[in-house]
């Protein structure tokens, strides 16, 4: 690779990180209700000055927020916040906290366990780690306005795990906390299936052992494509719906035999 090509690649990665940072910040503010339903976001020029970026970067951030269903554009006006509840879409990368707030729910997280341990075989594959590498494992009960909704089991590679281990136990959104520390969530591969509740799931979610739970297994990567988390999230079936958009030209939905990751 020539120096010019390498420089272009680095700039592209930096630009992607910048617009995703702007989109993540605005998404958090929208989720917190700062602009209200139907409210207008700051003008492009104001946002460009706030973040020290070009208007083109701001427009990219707005396009991402529009794709996530958080804002709409109206002719002759600034971007307007959409206030209607919506399901989680596979066409977007949205944390549990932001998704919950977008529906008017208050997200919560109760820490069950947090520890560093050797990675198992699946974790080594998903996080691209050598055998014997250590990972940081977190297990939490996630709630919607105080109601049990999901048991979250997330494993982080060493560098990210060190940051997670230093977060306060009452941290609601690891995604937001990590973004503030420079770890950006750019892409994710999702696998959705049903699984029976184990004894711990049943105790935390208030269901019976063996009851079906909606399971989402997810590997998230940063803008460079490096894995930053591997998660096994188990939802009560009546708490979440997922949507998928596909077309004849392209789509993100793939069918696989049950049990494949």
UniProtKB/TrEMBL annotation:
One Pfam family recorded for the sequence: GntR
Domain of life: Bacteria
Entry-linked PROSITE patterns: HTH_GNTR
Keywords linked to the UniProt accession: DNA-binding, Transcription, Transcription regulation
GO biological process per UniProt: negative regulation of DNA-templated transcription
CDD domains attached to this UniProt entry: WHTH_GntR
Any GO MF annotation of the entry: DNA binding
Domain annotation HTH gntR-type: ranges: 16-85
PANTHER family named among the record's database cross-references: MANNOSYL-D-GLYCERATE TRANSPORT/METABOLISM SYSTEM REPRESSOR MNGR-RELATED (PTHR44846), MANNOSYL-D-GLYCERATE TRANSPORT_METABOLISM SYSTEM REPRESSOR MNGR-RELATED (PTHR44846:SF1)
Protein's recorded name: UTRA domain-containing protein
Native organism: Streptomyces fagopyri
